[in-house]
Known about the structure:
Family: Belongs to the UPF0303 family.
Helix content: 40-55%
Number of strands: 5
Oligomer: single chain
Strand content: 15-25%
Pfam family, one: HbpS-like
CATH superfamily: Haem-degrading domain
CATH topology: Beta-Lactamase
CATH architecture: 2-Layer Sandwich
CATH class: Alpha Beta
Radius of gyration: 15 Å
Distance between the termini: 35 Å
InterPro entries: PduO/GlcC-like, PduO/GlcC-like_sf, YBR137W-like
Order of helices and strands: HHEHEEHHHEEH
Protein name: UPF0303 protein BBN63_22525
Strand order of the largest sheet: 1-4-5-2-3
Structural class: alpha+beta
Number of helices: 7
Amino acid sequence: MTAAQDRPFPTVAELEAQEARLVLPHFTYDDAWALGSLLVELSREREAPVAIDIRRGAQQLFHCALPGSSADNDAWIDRKRRVVERYSESSFLVGSRFRAKGTTFEDSSRLDPDRYAAHGGSFPITVRGAGVVGTVTVSGLPQEEDHALVVAALERTLAASGN
């Protein structure tokens, strides 16, 4: 059991606070490259078998598949990303909202589970004054670890921007 599995999932309030805090001043092609490269670095340090995807709107700006990942991770990326695009919230937060109501996303969202997955790992890229402009997604670890990896990278990115 990993350390993340030893503790409960973050609460809805904790996930909402992350999203309120992780708002970037801008998001350019170079920013996407830097964020993706940071995620690769963090993943390699953890020997995480993940795939990483960053998009602005419909355009994929970064993609990397690390050793141990598979095409299944790309399918999970697509499903988690669609949740963020639809709800403008992290896939983990959306799933957590359903769990907090005593149900599941799959049972209650009325969305095709082959196309949507409210599992942790996809996070909205939000720019101050512009709102949600894209997504950053990781797949390959347990959902809370996928989510935590993305949050760690966004926290570092925000700190490096001086905000």
